[in-house]
Amino acid sequence: MTVDHGVEPAIRADARRNRELILAAAQRALAERGATVSLAEVARRAGVGAGTVHRHFPTKTDLLEAVMHQRVDRLATSAAEHLTDPDPGAAFFALCTHVIVTTPGNKDLCDLVQSDDGWPRALLRDAGNRFHRALGALLASAQRHGTVRRDVEVADVLDIFTGCVAIQRHRRQDAPLAPAVALILDALRTHPSPVTERPKVDRNETGVGNETSAPCAVCGTAVRRPATGRPARYCSPACRQKAHRLRSGTRRLTTGR
């Protein structure tokens, strides 16, 4: 009996492709529906059979851990790649922004990993340690560059991630940084951005129903635009009455009555 050795690599490539499809589908499903999502739902989203999912991940715990490991591993790789950027300060804040913006959808996974439910965390610990080392090296580089405060430590940055992710969760998944998050990150800088006051808005002058229309037909004062109905022509009842008297006087002159 002969074995076609060209078949085995093709099978391995197909298995790797299926595994990646399953992980990608699980990531999306978990971000949308949380850790209660079923393996059958993940299989449906991945376009594979339930048996294929079970061959790669016999239990949901195996799948959840693989998804979380993939995420942390990618963050570690991203942090390491940022070390070669010519501007360490910009690279550090770019990484912080990426972590904060992309983490809210993984909140349930983070909670599971941090719980004491007996998860086998060896792979996660290894990926987490690599991320922390790369983050620490990037932080130190940004501090040497004079961009980030010298008194900031990796533990501080991780605590800031936790708080900022909680704030960011109240925004849409594709939304930019929340203003409060931007302020917190700015506090890490050696020289924070100058504080600029938001322009004060006179609520009586702007907004729907308060915008000005044409000036008063009698005195020229700006006329408030009502929320509904036709725009007013006069600024007050007095001007409206004055206009009426003017019209009546003009009619009598022209008609003789």
UniProtKB/TrEMBL annotation:
<keyword id="KW-0804">Transcription</keyword>
<dbReference type="InterPro" id="IPR036271">
    <property type="entry name" value="Tet_transcr_reg_TetR-rel_C_sf"/>
</dbReference>
<keyword id="KW-0805">Transcription regulation</keyword>
<protein>
    <submittedName>
        <fullName>TetR family transcriptional regulator</fullName>
    </submittedName>
</protein>
<keyword id="KW-0238">DNA-binding</keyword>
<dbReference type="InterPro" id="IPR050109">
    <property type="entry name" value="HTH-type_TetR-like_transc_reg"/>
</dbReference>
<dbReference type="InterPro" id="IPR009057">
    <property type="entry name" value="Homeodomain-like_sf"/>
</dbReference>
<dbReference type="InterPro" id="IPR001647">
    <property type="entry name" value="HTH_TetR"/>
</dbReference>
<feature type="DNA-binding region" description="H-T-H motif">
    <location>
        <begin position="38"/>
        <end position="57"/>
    </location>
</feature>
<dbReference type="GO" id="GO:0000976">
    <property type="term" value="F:transcription cis-regulatory region binding"/>
</dbReference>
<dbReference type="Pfam" id="PF21597">
    <property type="entry name" value="TetR_C_43"/>
</dbReference>
<feature type="domain" description="HTH tetR-type">
    <location>
        <begin position="16"/>
        <end position="75"/>
    </location>
</feature>
<dbReference type="Pfam" id="PF00440">
    <property type="entry name" value="TetR_N"/>
</dbReference>
<dbReference type="GO" id="GO:0003700">
    <property type="term" value="F:DNA-binding transcription factor activity"/>
</dbReference>
<dbReference type="InterPro" id="IPR049445">
    <property type="entry name" value="TetR_SbtR-like_C"/>
</dbReference>
